[in-house]
Automatic annotation (TrEMBL):
Protein name in the entry: Iron-containing alcohol dehydrogenase
Residue ranges constituting the Fe-containing alcohol dehydrogenase-like C-terminal domain according to the UniProt record: 179-377
Molecular function terms, GO-annotated: alcohol dehydrogenase (NAD+) activity; metal ion binding
InterPro entries: ADH_Fe/GldA, ADH_Fe_C, ADH_Fe_CS, Alcohol_dehydrogenase_Fe
Keywords, alphabetical: NAD, Oxidoreductase
Length: 382
């Protein structure tokens, strides 16, 4: 007898996209807005693309511009203080994943403070200025606990934005190195979503589409940041990948990158990119994952007759892309001292094993597996 199974697919916020889509804010009726962003975005007047519209519509606004890469618990508490004082009816997060994750965590703790459920959740707008995290369409946030020396990934529907404005005009001035790091984060999100234990027809379509876009357009955007078509394609791919992994979850590529990034302050997308060839090889020992990776290889236009060689071809394709995007081959190449790295492995492995992303990896990892992956990454062993 067949038992019925109901699964769930969350679409998330309304998405307004395209060059100039920021103009939609003029149609909103906000009384009191809190803008969460970075000092650089204010100093470079990028934030004026938002605040000028708020002024035109007569909205009061306050700017919290202390966000830094890898937002910390202390930073979230500081932003929360402003939110409690100002009681905005709208939160706008403007920036990369750090700004959006800070606003999400702030929103989460603000609503959790309301034990009696009397407060109305502020309308939440996410405006990404980089193409990579997909945070504008997910209920995930990653915050750094500096006391424990670890990144904490957590998930709650409260943190899902109500509106995502995916306007690629914000990405035109993004530096080459950031374009590479964030673009490869899209690829990691997409591939992990595609091979996840929770992947499904809906997530597969979005993940596959995003993978194709990255291989077709990332190098173009890296070489010419003013290529508007490439920028728009990547910005859309980031959102597509975000919807995919928000529903299918991620895997150990992210678990290991979270621990590594927290310990050695490596940008998240770069850590993911460096780990990716190692993770594909490791996961491909699991039969279904191997078949899924082989499908990706064919999807990006590489025809190989058998699955194992097809996986090897995908690994090679990622390695070539990394090289063209000037991603370091090994941690040793980055100048990390051997003794310092090896003394940190056990602690990083502990954190990676307990990371929320490890649960839905297609292959169940052991501590020994994680140690070997880290060692191979340090030495650049293929």
């Amino acid at each position: 007898m067949r038992s019925d199974i109901m699964n769930r697919f969350e679409v998330g916020p309304q998405i307004l996209y395209g060059r100039g889509s920021i103009g939609c804010l003029i149609e909103k009726d906000f009384r009191n807005v809190m803008l969460v962003t970075e000092k650089f975005i204010v100093d470079s007047e990028i934030s004026k693309k938002v605040t000028n519209i708020l002024s035109l519509q007569g909205s009061d606004y306050n700017v919290f511009s202390e966000v830094k890469p890898d937002p910390t618990v202390d930073l979230v508490i500081k932003s929360l203080d402003m939110m409690v004082t100002e009681r905005p009816d709208c939160i706008i997060a403007l920036g990369g994943g750090s700004s959006i994750d800070t606003a999400k965590a702030m929103m989460y703790f603000f609503m959790k403070m309301d034990q009696n459920k009397e407060m109305k959740k502020p309308y939440f707008v996410a405006i990404p200025t980089t193409s990579g995290t997909g945070s504008e369409v997910t209920s995930y946030s990653v915050i750094t606990d500096t006391k424990e020396g670890k990144k904490i990934a957590f998930d709650d529907p409260i943190m899902m934005p109500d509106l995502a404005i995916v306007d690629s005009k914000f990405t035109i001035t993004v530096p080459k190195k950031v374009t590479a790091d964030t673009g490869l984060d899209i690829l990691t999100h997409s591939i992990e979503a595609f091979v996840s234990k929770k992947s499904n027809d809906y997530t597969d379509t979005l993940a596959e589409g995003a993978i194709k876009i990255v291989f077709s357009y990332l190098l173009k955007a890296f070489k010419d940041g003013k290529d508007e078509v490439a920028r728009e394609k990547l910005h859309n791919a980031s959102t597509m990948a975000g919807i995919a992994f928000n529903n299918s979850s991620l895997g150990i590529n992210h678990s290991l990158a979270h621990a590594l990034g927290a310990r050695f302050h490596i940008p998240h997308g770069r850590a993911n990119a460096m780990l990716m060839p190692h993770i594909i090889k490791y996961n491909s020992e699991e039969k279904q994952a191997r078949s899924r990776y082989a499908y990706i290889t064919k999807s990006i236009g590489i025809e190989v007759p058998d699955e194992r060689n097809s996986v090897n071809a995908l690994v090679k394709a990622v390695e070539i892309l990394n090289e063209k995007l000037e991603i370091p081959h090994s941690l040793k190449d980055m100048g990390i001292e051997r003794e310092e790295f090896y003394s940190a492995i056990d602690e990083m492995v502990d954190k990676a094993m307990n990371d929320i992303c490890t649960e839905n990896n297609p292959r169940i990892p052991s501590r020994t597996d994680f140690i070997k992956i880290y060692e191979d990454l340090y030495n650049g062993k293929k």
